[in-house]
Amino acid sequence: MKISKAEFIKGVIGDDYSLKDNLPHIAFFGRSNAGKSSVINSLAGKKDLVKISKVPGKTRQADFFRINNSFYLVDFPGYGYAKCSISKRNKIIKRIFWYVEFSEARPKAVFLIIDVNVGLTALDWDMLKILEANKHQVVIVANKIDKLSKEAAEKQLSLIQEEAPDILVLGYSAKTSEGKDELTQKIASFI
Ligand SMILES: Nc1nc2c(ncn2[C@@H]2O[C@H](COP(=O)(O)OP(=O)(O)OP(=O)(O)O)[C@@H](O)[C@H]2O)c(=O)[nH]1
Ligand SMILES: [Mg+2]
Predict the structure, then answer these.
(1) Where are the alpha helices (DSSP H) in 21-119?
(2) Read out DSSP for 32-56?
(3) What confidence score (pLDDT) does residue 21 get?
(4) How far is it, in rounded angstroms, from Cα 163 to Cα 44?
(5) Separation of alpha carbons 43 and 49, rounded Å
(6) pLDDT value, residue 49
(7) Quick one: how far is CA 185 from the chain centroid?
(8) Burial of 121 (0-12, 13-18, 19+ CB in 10 A)
(9) Nearest 10 degrees: Cα torsion 43, 44, 48, 51
(10) Which atom of ligand 1 lies at the shortest distance from residue 54's CA?
(11) Which of 23, 98, 105, 163 could make an SS bond with 17 (beta carbons 3.0 to 4.6 A apart)?
(12) How many CB atoms neighbour CB 66 within 10 A?
């Protein structure tokens, strides 16, 4: 698959994840600042399909992007942003959990974006557990590999893979688009 068309369709704040066309969803979850929005931009080959910012907590709603008129990439707000109020953080986490557990718009797969330098945090493990309990297909995308040397990136990726042996871990860089073909093919395999 090649991504030839990417359009912003809808930003959802409440619990309405239903979109009339019934196209499949692929969800992007992860800590704030891990690079979810940047990964979507790089996959789409568009610099500002999704707004990103140096200030964490940029994505406030679940943004639905229709790809090639055939499926959605869904960019969720990040969890675990320390400067966000506790009630706001809880709201975001509740919303994500609701989507994962109860929404009719069940995603075909969830791509958990992490920072390759940070690895899997306690909040990521909470998320992985709830995803597993609800039998979701999950792929871990270790983003920002451009920040490490090739050797350091490989070492860090194998450490993450050892920690989560049952889940595919892909290295990625939203900055250089390294890993784009592999990630695109993986997404396509779930559609
Ligand atoms: N070097 C490098 N920086 C990246 C990469 N991906 C994202 N960034 C930077 O990381 C910061 C956060 O990126 P976002 O895409 O906004 O992260 P997010 O996960 O969508 O964050 P929230 O919307 O707050 O949940 C920005 O300053 C990006 O430029 C990458 O692959 N390499
Ligand atoms: Mg974002």
Answers:
(1) 36-44, 86-101
(2) TTS-HHHHHHHHHT-TTSS---SSS
(3) 80
(4) 30
(5) 10
(6) 84
(7) 15
(8) middle
(9) -60
(10) 27
(11) 105
(12) 18
Q: Which one of 28, 33, 183 would you pick to mutate in the ligand 1 pocket, going by the greatest count of ligand atoms within 8 A of its CB? A: 33
Q: Which atom of ligand 1 is nearest to the CA of 40?
A: 15
**Of 38, 50, 75, 148, best ligand 1 pocket probe by most atoms within 8 Å of the beta carbon:** 38
> Domains, the chain, ranges and CATH?
6-13+23-190 (3.40.50.300)
Q: What pLDDT does 12 receive?
A: 79
Q: Average pLDDT of each block of 10 consecutive residues along the chain (191 residues)?
A: 90 70 90 93 87 64 91 87 64 71 80 97 90 93 98 98 98 98 98 94
State residue 80's pLDDT score: 72
Specify the residue with its C-alpha closest to ligand 1, atom 2: 144
Handedness of CA 117, 119, 122, 124 (dihedral sign): positive
pTM: 0.91
Contact between 6 and 66 (Cβ < 8 Å): yes
- Span from the CA of 165 to the centroid of ligand 2 (angstroms): 27
Question: Contact, 33 vs 56, CB < 8 A?
Answer: yes
